[in-house]
Task: structure prediction
Amino acid sequence: MGRRLLKIEYDGTNFCGWQLQPDVRTVQGELERAVSKAAGKNTRTVLHGAGRTDAGVHALSQMAHFDSHSSHSCHTYLHAINFWLSTHDISVRAIYEVPDNFHARFDAVKKTYRYSIILSETKRPLFERYCTRIDRKVDINSLNSAAELIKGTHDFASFTASGGDTESTVRTIFNSHWIREGDMLNYFIEGSGFTYNMVRNLVGSMTEVGCGGFSLKKFESILECNDRKQAGPTAPPGGLMLYEICYGRSLSLFNKYET
Amino acid sequence: MGRRLLKIEYDGTNFCGWQLQPDVRTVQGELERAVSKAAGKNTRTVLHGAGRTDAGVHALSQMAHFDSHSSHSCHTYLHAINFWLSTHDISVRAIYEVPDNFHARFDAVKKTYRYSIILSETKRPLFERYCTRIDRKVDINSLNSAAELIKGTHDFASFTASGGDTESTVRTIFNSHWIREGDMLNYFIEGSGFTYNMVRNLVGSMTEVGCGGFSLKKFESILECNDRKQAGPTAPPGGLMLYEICYGRSLSLFNKYET
Result:
């Protein structure tokens, strides 16, 4: 009984994204079926995700809540859902008993995404499942100069694909930086929220700056002009990972089972 | 013309191992076909690998040589072989022009393997392709006490599966240690060579020590008794990666193309 919040990890390679759609395999679809089975229900249990991820995008930590008609303990629920998932590419890693007014999406105060790039002229079989490969030289300092400009509150219309469901494209970015480790580049962005395709569009234009295709001034003018057509290409989905979601109320205070 | 040495990366998940076998997909089989095509030959080009990897085992850096009847430059050869490979799970990352008496296997003086473990009670979709998951508590200090005993020259008969093609099971281990980073455990072992299934058998018995199933004394007695039946289980292949192969003659001295 009551509302439960799930922490979910998935490999997005073989999903048509998070959101439930008819006739295709989605993370929400697989999870709703497993949660319904775990709750012993024959009707659909609706899951409310903290955010949607596109086809091919991964999640280290997606969050979603549902209203339970079962009184399973957190431990029983977690293992029952994972049992019914019976697939290797989704896993429920934690479950929390949250108040009925808690909402996985509306109560999120910060989301973190990571975008990973591997620099190599030749294919990298061991890396390309979770990284986008770039075969050009990329300057980390130029990437970070562009990443710095994104911080703060901006209208991200230039980096928003059509098809999203929110009217405002204004978001606040708390942190935005690239880290290089050998041939790997990892971009971390933390924000109040993200518009449709925003991280992949930002990465696409930042890598143009890093490769010398765009000047930093050009990148700044794209951010300011609010015109999607000025921006660079959308970076591929496989390099993107929903990394963490933070809530105003600490989840550690709730009854829970974490693995 | 002359002998060429290849540095090869592969994801072993969808291969029946390195060694050529009829009617199944092997790394050697795919590579020999691509090298023959790249050389413009209709007959088979034989590849001599530095070592065999089992089904499911990955390689960050496998080495193999062949005798070329083409005078392609290193750059042309590398791109031609990768073009003919036309698969995402093998890549040739470097090519060297080596003397005719150079042998990928017999001239190797040190091989390094890595074995990766992820500690988690629940599935880890983003990690299990390249790690073995253990859902018990593992003590890193116990792992390292066992790893320390392996160093030096020993008869590894207790850790050798039947079916190998060498008579002696004596090998010299230069380095053997576990590193913990968060929920990840990485084991690095460097040696003069390895008997059939040796690394996976060592990891299987060391993790028994780490989980408290075997005492350190028991592990030591297994190493000394030269009896395979005393050892623990064989660790699964997916956590294993051929990490590096070192030669007596530095490859940097040869004409080459590295990516």
Q: What stands out?
A: Chain A has a mean pLDDT of 95. Helices of chain A lie at 27-38, 74-85, 140-150, 198-211, 216-225. Chain A touches chain B at residues 9-11, 58, 60, 78, 82, 88-93, 120-126, 128-130, 241, 259 (CB under 8 Å). The radius of gyration of chain A is 19 Å.
